[in-house]
Amino acid sequence: MKQLRYIFLLILLLSTSGPLLAQQTLKVELPDELQRVLTDYETYWKNNNAEELANLFTEDGFILRPRNAPTQGRAAIEEAYQSSGGDLKLSAYDYHTDGELGYILGGYTYGNRTEDVGKFTLILKKKDGVWLIHSDMDNGNN
Fold it and tell me: Which SS3 state, helix, strand or coil, does residue 121 take?
């Protein structure tokens, strides 16, 4: 009888915790100067504009993609993004700035999908009053 009680409690716990485990990450609204970084990234990606994408980065910036060696520097970033493009949508989960450093944590999706298919971390540096990406690390959800 004692074992049945434990089994019942375990089933009850698992059935009530399921929605908690599957909950969506909340999205946050960014200040305009940070939102510009995401909006420009989406626009240049959609237009397959590798040069402008690379210009969103610091001179010594990085892209850190799954199954690829780190890519550093605007010229290398531009070359890496030559064949990139599509209907990319970025959203922020969290952000913070402190002086000339900041970050954005977020998710991305493509086309008409409503749920994120991956996550990213942008490390930002402010140069001459403009936020630039110093590091872009992403990975897919699968």
Answer: strand
